[in-house]
Amino acid sequence: MRAPVVPRQVYYWVYGTLLILTLLTVGVAFLDLGPMNAVVALAIAIFKAVLVMLFFMHLRYSSRLTWIVAGAGVIWLAHMLIFTLSDYLTRGWLMVQGW
Amino acid sequence: MHMRSRRRISKVEADGALAEQFDDLAQQHEAASLGMWVFLVTEILFFGGLFAGYTVYRASYPEAFGEASHHLDRLLGSMNTAVLISSSLTMALAVHSAQEGRRRALIVCLLITMALGAVFLGIKGTEYAHKFTERLVPGLDFGYDGPYPGQVELFMLFYFIMTGLHALHLVVGLGLLGVLAVLAWCGHFSAAYYAPLETGGLYWHFIDIVWIFLFPLLYLIGTHS
Question: CA dihedral in degrees (B207, B208, B212, B217; nearest 10)?
Fold first, then answer.
């Protein structure tokens, strides 16, 4: 029942992908995409983080229980950001005095 | 040399790397990495609050935060990203070497990881020093005379606290890796028992992930605003 030994090549591929994505995110920052700049930068960051978690942190080869724990952290973070922003970003939409 | 390390490894196994509350090493290994994941979730809570705060103020003052972000060194930030990703690779290779029972490769990988961590801190220190000469350090020496000085100061505050706490985690990680390297040197680990390396690696990769988000949010936002 020991965790499988991941082939070395997998780590090299992940590493190469992470470096290319880093170059990509720097490059995209120089294009003017308006508000999409932040979206693209965050999408790349999330993809990089998922790669690190799945392969470097062995999540892909871990038990379901580990998945649940890791997922709980991410879902909690999403809750905090979404509920916080749903307040701050929508202020002023209704143009009610004092809001 | 190889023979000796082999014999040492089997001795450790005989001595019992297995704590008595576990059925076998696999169960012990899973419990250890699960425990580290639980700790990392509390770390997500810890950094998450800062990220939420940053997001709120960035949404409130987009021009000021974009302007302030111009004062960060994008080249050094990119280099540090590459350095930290490289250190994650060598950390993963360290665990891999342990899984294969290659003690010398394990120690070398751990030392390279620590060296890369130190390079990251060195580059970070250079950036901090620049901020002092540019008088962009909130609270200590803030003499910014461009537009939105108060909001730029707020951005710099987020910058210093977030990267500072990240650097603090890295210093702790360096200490952990140092202990692991000494233990590895003493023949503490084997292909069957390497749970401390796995958990140390999880912590190190987490630091990498935090930086993966800090880098675009702090350094790259200002290109067009």
Answer: 30
